[in-house]
Each structure stands twice: as structure tokens, then as C-alpha cells.
Amino acid sequence: MQHRFSLDKSPRKYVCPNCGKRRFVLYLDNETGNYLPDYVGRCDRESNCQHHFTPKMYFDNNPDLRPQADLFGRPETPPPPLKDLSFIPPETLRQSLTAYDRNNFVKWLHSLFDADLVTNLVECFNVGTSKHWNGATVFWQVDTDLKVRQAKVMLYNPTTGKRLKEDSEPDKGKGKVYFAGKSILRQKGIEAPELRQCFFGEHQLSRETGQILAIAESEKTAILMTAFARLGIAPKYTWLATGGKNGAKWTTPEVFEVLAGCGAT
After folding, report:
1. Taking phi first (over 0 means left), then psi (-120 to 50 degrees means alpha), and beta for anything else, what does residue 141 get?
2. Of 30, 47, 144, 247, which is least surrounded by CB within 10 A?
3. Which pLDDT tens digit goes with each residue over 33-44?
4. Residue 20 sits in which domain range?
5. In this structure, is residue 195 part of a structural domain?
6. What total of structural domains would you count in the chain?
């Protein structure tokens, strides 16, 4: 069932009332074909603006203009129940905890810190080595029950620590990132695995209570800040990473339930 109001799917863009850029998408009344006022919409400058003024906000401010029925569409068919989650066998994680002499990311860590600290960081975060690309690293997502949720494979420059990019079209300039979870489970005979990501470093929350958490975007930042904390040059927070600013996983409340009772920054 189509909702009464939805964002315009045409290429038309308007000036955003928040940032002043012509990146504003208006809401369309699907029953009349008319737009709502030119401040009711969403800016698609996701990283820099994200201004979003919804039809509900508009009609809350203008109740006399509210349609009498079907404002946001009739209730849709309830979604099917969630499938049981699939988990990657822990032995697969353990098998990756080797060959650090060919792991570009670990090589770079050795250029910054002494061997004992690097070993400690690798063990703390379950940093693995992948054969997907020569020199690749696998960042395992392990939840508070110590169940392995996902395997994120990335490739870094061993000298600079920067992510390496794809060279060929249409992926030119795109970072080399590969989520290996489904492939791993299909090799184990699970044809349609149901995976759900968690924070990178989340397994640390199973160790103790009362931690002060800090959440970064990248796995590399979480590992570096943990190193600085252990060297006494940064606060002793427990560092997690989202692994990216986008994705459906960060729109579901259950992802954040693990943070309950912890101080976060």
C-alpha cells in the first residue's frame, strides 16, 4: 500500500532551507500530485546537512490543514517474523589469526608501536589475515555473547596505513572492502544465512561492567585509540567502531541495546 506522502522520486532538487544548497527533495502528495510547501523535504547532502522536515512535522504545526483520512497511508502488511540469526563458526575466526608477516595493516602497526603492544592489540580485537587480497586484513565483528557476526575484509598500504583503492572502472576510487560472512557460511552449507552486524570490538563489553565507551567510525581508529590509551596518552576508554556511517544496521534499536548501562562518548 502506497503512503499518502513520499519523497519525490524525480530528479528535481530545490534549495535546502538549512544549508542553502540545491539538494533538497520535496515531499509529494501521492493522492493529488501536488508538493507540500518548499520547506517540507529532505536534504540529500548526507554527510554535511541531513536536514529533514517531515509531513508529520508540517501537519503537527498546521493541524487545520491535516487531511481527514489516510494521512500516511493505511497500515501495511506486518513484516514477516525475523529469521533465526546465523553465526560464523569461531574456528573460522581462529584460523585467520596467523600469517601476520603478510598482513599489511599489522605491518603498519609494527611501524608505530613495539611488538608487545601490537600483539596485545591484535589479540584484543581479533585482527585476522585474509587471502581475499594479498596483504588483506579481516576485522571480525563479535558480539557480547562472543558469537561471530560478520567478517569485514579490508586492504591497507603497509607503509602509510591508508586504505588502498580499486583501480578499475566502475570501482575506481572505491575502497577495497568485502563482507565475507555470507560466503563463509555458504561454504559451510548454509545457503541463505541471516546475518546481522554488531559493533566492531563489541566483545569487549562481555569482560567487565562500568566501562566508559567511545565509538569511532573506523576499525583502525578504534585500534589506534586503544593503543594510545595503553600508552597513557589518551583516556582509558573502551573503543568500539561502527565500521561506517551508513547502513541499515544503525537504524535498528537492538543494535544499541548493548550500550545500556555504559557511559558513552
Report:
1. beta
2. 47
3. 899 999 999 998
4. 5-65
5. yes
6. 2
* Residues forming beta bridges with residue 142, ordered by sequence position: 148
Report whether 152 contacts 141 (CB < 8 A): yes
Reported as a single tens digit per residue, the pLDDT across 89-133 is 999 999 999 999 999 999 999 999 999 999 999 999 999 999 999
- State which of 50, 65, 80 marks the end of a domain: 65
Whether 83 is covered by a domain: the verdict is: no
